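User: I want to check something. If I give you two sequences, will you return the structure for each one separately, not as a complex?

Assistant: Yes, each is folded on its own. Here is the first sequence with its structure:
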Amino acid sequence: MDSVLYGQPPATAGKADFSGNKVVGVPDVLIGTELYYQPTQAPWLHVEVGARNNGAYYADDANSVVAPSQTVFDGGVSVARMLPNGASLRLRLAVDNITDKRYVASVFLNPDRNTAGQPFAYEPGMPRTLVFSFSMTRAK
């Protein structure tokens, strides 16, 4: 138990039986989806939307601290152009977490607790984020 490192092991340290419990930090469900659209009348345009889902999972061996499930939506648009010298340019503008949802991105496994017994476990996910990228490739 991590609290042993701080010199205050719990009374049950070394005596707990967690057999049959779910594995710590491993959700039952992980789903990632993306849809892309490229209009025939504008083949240089590329539109994308996606969703990421993590199912709920336990943050401790006793299965008493739960990291809730979450679904986060992303989207973007990009344009690509071929240059006369054979190079290709691509500009992309995207938004991660379009709905600006508050969610748990990760947890500390087997967390210590404060004096009220609440776990110090959760790390927040990124808020809505604007992403800009530029790439250039050239075929030989």
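And separately, the second sequence with its own structure:
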Amino acid sequence: MNLRPHQEHAIDLLRDSLRRGKRRPMLAAPCSFGKTITAAALLKSALDKGKRGIFICDRIKLVSQTLKAFDKQGLPFGVMQGNHELTDPRQPIQVASIQTLSRRRTMPDFDFAIVDEAHTHYKHLTTMMEAYNNVVFVGLSATPMSKGLGKHYDDLVVPITTEELLNQGYLCPVEYYGGRELNTQGIQVKALPTGGTDFDPKMLGEAAEKDVKLTGDIVTNWVKHGWGRQTIAFSPSIKHSKGLVEEFKKFGIPAAHIDGYMDEADRQRLYAAHDAGEFLILSCSKLLNTGYDAPSVSCLIDCRPTKSKIVFVQTAGRIFRTAPGKEKAIYLDHSGNIQRHGFPEFITPSELDDGSKRFSEDRQVRKKEKKVNSCPKCQLKMTGPKCVCGFEFKQTEEMYTDGTELVKLQKKSNKTYSPERKAEFFGELLHYAETRGYKRGWASVHYRDKFGVWPNKIEPVKVSGLSEEVTNWIKHSNIKARYLAMKKVA
């Protein structure tokens, strides 16, 4: 198998853990790390030693994805999931859903186990671990911050961070945009199966459904920042997701809703159609949060606030995968989750909760090291933005908002336009106006909308066609104008 360096490093760390006497290591592998190929390599190694292995999934879609990956690697496997057509208990590797295992009267025969998405720990899995107390169980999760995981797993293996994967080019760079968000004041919280708490889904859904203006802002900002991109959207409720889809359709933007109550065949058709580019936006409430694997998706609309870092990181991870022609991904934050949790690539598991302390997801996360600066005013060493003498550094990771349009969340400086590019931009707008029979003022107005000033001192460059950037800007402006006109009439 052609493993990447971080995958080989993960296997080495797991083997070292076992040599140190650990029997239940947890591999903290970031979203898009390549957990399945790493698992395939581990199972192949066990198979070469004459052992039988089992790969345990927590949902049907993950079973399907695993089968494709294992088949590609040439592993001999059978499936334990309902009446699956690939059921074959004679095979040395079994891919099983935890739901099917919990319904079986007899335990399967295996010498080595891998548990996928192990941050969701099922009662039946505890029973299996106790029954097979001499068997190695390896947990896989990007977010092993659940309550009590340290009671079932005895070591945390962190081979690489999301930030490091991004810096090494294995993940797609993401631009984050934030601004107006759903108001969560007064919304109660409920306990999560992972041990934390989150906003009450019913109250959250009702608040989102009442905020009609926010739904319109979501459409407007997608047109501005995500136009033409394969997109997934997360809503607080199924009703809100369906309403969001209808809002996109009003403006001729192809979109579809998907949820767990649909027939499995219908869901598969939607997945395939979206992957094929037959429509742009696939919207859900929770369904796509874990295990959804579509590298071509390069935009995420997040309008579902969450207090859980597990939920947040899993959601953000859906757009980190690389794909041919995918230079960057866009995260549109209408939820306030970036402000609530920080940038997802900076969230790294640091320990497993064993119940010895009061549970907190934050306690399970490695804190990003604070940079030490010297105050320019009094020379005192300081780690925060403000010195005791009163001097304050300008923040480089900050959210700006005008209340309606999302703007970029700063980790780096915004894109700047040279005078030459502005002249080309204005020239393209004039070219478009001429081909449509519009007056010169049309191009001037659109230039002002883009750059905030009139093109009084700009000498336009004569062009023969439009760039993709200007084409998308015109589309955004046209749809935004139609949307505002409809709102005015309403």
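Because they were folded independently, the notes below concern the second chain alone. The longest strand covers residues 136-141. The radius of gyration is 25 Å.
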